[in-house]
TrEMBL record:
Protein name as it appears in the record: MFS efflux pump outer membrane lipoprotein NodT family
Organism classification: Bacteria, Pseudomonadati, Pseudomonadota, Betaproteobacteria, Burkholderiales
Family: Belongs to the outer membrane factor (OMF) (TC 1.B.17) family.
Swiss-Prot/TrEMBL keywords: Lipoprotein, Plasmid
SUPFAM superfamilies hit by this protein: Outer membrane efflux proteins (OEP)
Domain of life: Bacteria
Keyword Lipoprotein assigned: yes
GO molecular function: efflux transmembrane transporter activity
Pfam families: OEP (PF02321)
Length: 92
């Protein structure tokens, strides 16, 4: 149970950090786009900011999956489980 709980907590913290990183990447993209429109930076800067945002969004999505999986592991380690609706009905 300790391992499952530690994994959940670590991934939960990582997900929170990735959420902040995605927001920072959005702001970076906005700034890069504004600077490009004003002729200050080349378009490759905008493309790089878009790539970075896509990567961080992908990492956030994977982290969300991991948090869910880790939470299920915590639940199972505490003795929780799932019963199929048909199995539960058959038992009654």
């Amino acid at each position: 149970m300790d391992n499952a709980l530690a994994s959940y907590r670590t991934e939960h913290d990582r997900r929170a950090a990735l959420t902040r990183t995605v927001e920072a990447s959005r702001m970076s993209l906005q700034l890069a786009t504004d600077r490009y429109r004003k002729g200050i930076t080349p378009f490759v800067t905008v493309l790089d900011a878009e790539r970075q945002l896509a990567q961080t969004r992908e990492q956030l999505a994977q982290s969300t999956v991991n948090v869910t999986t880790d939470l299920i592991a915590v639940y199972k380690s505490l003795g929780g489980g799932w019963q199929d609706d048909q199995a539960a009905t058959a038992q009654n």
